[in-house]
Amino acid sequence: MPDQLDGPVRDFVSGLRHMHGELGLSLKDLEARLPASRSSLSRYLRGQSLPDERLLVQWCKLSFTGEDRLPELVRLLHLANEAAAGGSSDETAGGSERTEVLGGAAGRPPKSSRTKWALTAAGTVLVLGAATAVVVGLTGDGPPNSPAGTGVSRETGPAAKNGKTERITVHNVEKACQHSHRRECALGLALDPYVPYRPSNIGGRVWHGDRLTAQCRIANGVTVTDEAGGHNSIWYKVRLHDKDLWFPGIRIEPDQLQYSTLRNCPD
């Protein structure tokens, strides 16, 4: 992240990067899914310009954690626009307003536009929130008598003594989530490691410190980037809630990933 970014703009860009890190999509792939060019998306992630709320809402809908991060990202975007007041706005390739932050004088989008997209974002939050409640209910992330989403740490069955399975520990690099079981701190278990890591591909949730039994692993799945910028394409096949699911290697304890001797999954 550029050193010259500070204050609300830096806070927004940091939050945007965290959300984007869950996607496992290149900018080329993202360009095909959003009404913005690759160069515009790159500028947003570097803090050189700010997206409008319509684009931000669409971007968040692609991410597993975006549904939880959206309200805070909208708030940070408003603060960033206010901090960048005093310059000019122009149009992105996708037709959305862009506020230049670095290397140019930036201005806030017109008040009427900000109000319009704030209402759009608020409506989307309600829809996404309802969808999230359904996912939590279907996956049963807490024990039977616990409130939904409490995420009490749990373990799958013990590892086999014949060395054909391996215990892995969930690791969330975000410090604030290492002692919290809030819904926004949950990490997703994918149904398919070869397709984008997005809400439609999530079959379960786990939290920092949870221990899973991995059956095998692959090294050529979708690349996942964490909030610290680490990334790889290794995925572990695990069993949870009587389903075979997949967990990204970037999300387990670093030493376990480095020294794993688990067999490769058969083709």
What do these coordinates show?
This protein is of the alpha+beta class and 267 residues long. It has seven helices and eleven strands. It has helices at 7-21, 27-31, 38-46, 53-61, 66-83, 111-139, 254-258; strands at residues 49-50, 89-91, 97-100, 166-169, 187-190, 202-206, 211-218, 224-225, 231-232, 235-240, 243-248. The protein has a four-stranded antiparallel beta sheet with strand order 4-7-10-11, with no helix packed on it. The longest helix has 29 residues, at 111-139. The model is unreliable at 87-153 (pLDDT under 50).
Mean pLDDT: 73
Our Rg estimate from Cα atoms comes to 20 Å
Tell me the β content. Answer: 15-25%
Shape: elongated
SSE order in H/E notation?
HHHEHHEEHEEEEEEEEH
Q: Low-confidence segments, ≥5 residues, pLDDT <50?
A: 87-153
Amino- and carboxy-terminal Cα gap: 39 Å
Order of adjacent strands in the largest pleated sheet: 4-7-10-11
**What is the count of helical runs?**
7
Oligomer state equals single chain
Secondary structure tally: strands? 11
Could you estimate the helical fraction of the residues in percent?
Answer: 25-40%
Global structural class: alpha+beta
Profile the largest sheet. 4 strands, antiparallel
